[in-house]
């Protein structure tokens, strides 16, 4: 997708990609492998250099050894080309920098080429963003060609999100800020926009009353792992719902944009966020479910409950699961429930959007199997797929119906490789394309909706419902849909 209004980077300039947190988990598992893939496919300008920063007192050789040991393994075997990898390593430099300790960034300024086009990837805790941006600016590293990429979490509530936005906005124009939500980089999510707005058959029925409900699930099989220190202060609502699930909801619910320019698309997403009905205390009690996993079986192994995990405070009420019923108060979506669900230690890793269409007004065929006749299922994880469930006649002498899936098999329709979300988004950053990144007002509107729910839970003071690790969440989550005559599609 093109996006005309993003500032076109001056491709004649050398590109310096500067990663803060260059030795961290995200850099090793995602960023460097994604940059390698971009390099492998010729999507990095030949002049690119990657300057990784970190606090450790090591030289370039030791850094490369660290990358060999901790990053190389995250490149799929079929994509690994020894010679290309060696070429990629040549792009890497290491700059020792404690952003809090250093009075300024002169070491970084000395390493970055004068006049280079600079991309700053802030892969650190957000508490460092202000210091990093202030010192980058003071060191003369921020100019009109510079871009900054911000990793989530972008705040823990509206006030902290505003604080981060203000601090970054002091030195970078909005058109230079890339707030990353890697769900927006997924092929299938981008394809949903094409499906909706590149065809004319769906749009007329893409509304109430033709659509009876929408479900968005992002289920993780893993538990909190070693991230309890971070996670316990965050919870599933802040970690997943406020960002990934709301962004998916926006793509499902937005009106057709007038163009693919970043602002045209983001204006429409913003309207959705602003139309989300606000939860009052009674709505929170009725339409939201918080859960916390207990001991159970996951992937054939017995696993600990959240409270038994390392570094989890005793008796904490942090939720590892959320299900809720949201409403978008617009003509298009009037009375259509949007069910959102996310959790850790669920039965399996599975992210999908399910759009359920209204059933035919009366049952013509005897012995209909019941349930929902038509569903559009957009699977995002672990595999990306789009399926349309329709009713078809069972072969035979009668008129028996069965649900069958029209499978839009994109893997065989297109021979091209499907890039990972981080690779695609990093290429967008390099090329100055902002469409698939969140704008400031979107982020703040998402917090405006999420904050009252989080505050309401605190006011209600209820403990999260227990669910067994390896299950689909607490029974209350099923009851939430059953009440309206729906059920989760696993
Ligand atoms: P991490 O492994 O803890 O890495 C954080 C990095 O920050 C480390 O490399 C550390 O450098 C650096 N850092 C900390 N204090 C510093 C200082 N004073 N000066 C310079 N560097 C400093 O964390 P991560 O998992 O990579 O996550 C990074 C960010 O991305 C976090 O905000 C996280 O929430 C977000 N995120 C992570 C993931 C993921 O899958 N990991 C996914 C989505 C979002 P040293 O090497 O010197 O310790």
Automatic annotation (TrEMBL):
Task: Please give the PANTHER family that the UniProt record associates with this protein.
Answer: GLUCOSE-6-PHOSPHATE 1-DEHYDROGENASE (PTHR23429:SF0), GLUCOSE-6-PHOSPHATE 1-DEHYDROGENASE G6PD (PTHR23429)
Q: In which pathway does it act?
A: Carbohydrate degradation; pentose phosphate pathway; D-ribulose 5-phosphate from D-glucose 6-phosphate (oxidative stage): step 1/3
| Stated family | Belongs to the glucose-6-phosphate dehydrogenase family.
Which residues of this UniProt protein bind NADP(+)?
55, 98-99, 152
Q: Which NCBIfam families match?
A: zwf (TIGR00871)
Q: Which domain of life is it from?
A: Bacteria
Q: Does the keyword Phosphoprotein apply?
A: no
Q: Which segments constitute the Glucose-6-phosphate dehydrogenase NAD-binding domain?
A: 18-191
What GO terms are given for molecular function? glucose-6-phosphate dehydrogenase activity; NADP binding
**Entry EC number(s):** 1.1.1.49
Top EC group: oxidoreductase
Q: Which InterPro entries match?
A: G6P_DH, G6P_DH_AS, G6P_DH_C, G6P_DH_NAD-bd, NAD(P)-bd_dom_sf
Keyword Oxidoreductase present in the record's keywords: the answer is yes
The record lists the catalysed reaction(s) as: D-glucose 6-phosphate + NADP(+) = 6-phospho-D-glucono-1,5-lactone + NADPH + H(+)
List, in alphabetical order, the GO biological process terms annotated in this UniProt record: glucose metabolic process; pentose-phosphate shunt, oxidative branch
| Entry GO terms, CC | cytosol
Annotated Glucose-6-phosphate dehydrogenase C-terminal domain residues: 193-488
The name on file for this protein is: Glucose-6-phosphate 1-dehydrogenase
- Active site as annotated: 244 (proton acceptor)
């Amino acid at each position: 997708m093109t996006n005309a209004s993003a500032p076109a980077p001056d491709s004649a300039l050398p590109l310096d990609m500067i990663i803060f947190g260059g030795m961290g988990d995200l850099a090793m598992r995602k960023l460097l492998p994604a940059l390698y893939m971009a390099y492998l496919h010729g999507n990095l300008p030949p002049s690119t250099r990657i300057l990784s920063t970190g606090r450790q007192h090591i030289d370039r050789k030791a850094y490369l050894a660290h990358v060999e040991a901790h990053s190389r393994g995250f490149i799929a075997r079929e994509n690994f080309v020894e010679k290309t990898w060696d070429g990629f390593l040549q792009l890497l430099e290491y700059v020792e920098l404690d952003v809090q300790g250093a009075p300024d960034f002169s070491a970084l300024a000395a390493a970055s080429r004068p006049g280079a086009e600079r991309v700053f990837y802030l892969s650190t805790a957000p508490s460092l963003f202000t210091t990093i941006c202030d010192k980058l600016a003071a060191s003369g590293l921020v100019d009109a060609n510079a871009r900054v990429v911000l990793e989530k979490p972008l705040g823990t509530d509206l006030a902290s999100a505003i604080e981060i936005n203000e601090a970054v906005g002091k030195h970078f124009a909005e058109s230079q800020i890339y707030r990353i939500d890697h769900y927006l980089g997924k092929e299938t999510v981008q394809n949903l926009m094409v499906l909706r707005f590149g065809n004319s058959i769906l749009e007329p029925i893409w509304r109430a009353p033709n659509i009876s409900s929408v479900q968005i699930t992002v289920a993780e099989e893993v538990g909190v792992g070693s991230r309890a220190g971070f996670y316990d202060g965050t919870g599933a609502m802040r970690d997943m719902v406020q960002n990934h699930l709301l962004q998916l909801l926006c793509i499902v619910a937005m009106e057709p944009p007038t163009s693919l320019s970043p602002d045209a698309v983001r204006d429409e997403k913003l309207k959705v966020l602003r139309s989300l009905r606000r939860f009052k205390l009674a709505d929170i009690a009725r339409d939201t479910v918080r859960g916390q996993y207990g001991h159970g079986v996951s992937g054939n192994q017995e696993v600990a409950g959240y409270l038994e995990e390392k570094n989890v405070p005793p008796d904490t009420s942090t939720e590892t699961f959320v299900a809720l019923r949201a409403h978008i108060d617009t003509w298009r979506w009037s009375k259509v429930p949007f069910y959102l669900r996310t959790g850790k230690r669920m039965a399996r890793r599975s992210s999908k959007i399910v759009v359920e269409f209204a059933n035919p007004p009366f049952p013509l065929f005897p012995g209909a199997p019941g349930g929902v006749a038509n569903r559009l299922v957009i699977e995002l994880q672990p595999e990306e797929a789009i399926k349309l469930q329709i009713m078809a006649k069972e072969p035979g002498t009668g008129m028996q119906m069965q649900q069958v899936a029209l499978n839009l098999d994109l893997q065989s329709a297109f021979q091209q490789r499907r890039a990972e979300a981080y690779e695609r988004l990093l290429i967008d950053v390099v090329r100055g394309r902002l469409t698939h990144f969140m704008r400031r007002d979107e982020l703040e509107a998402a917090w405006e909706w999420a904050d009252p729910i989080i505050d309401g839970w605190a006011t209600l003071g209820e403990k999260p419902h227990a669910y067994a690790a390896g299950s689909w969440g607490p029974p209350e989550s099923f009851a939430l849909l059953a009440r309206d005559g729906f059920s989760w599609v696993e």
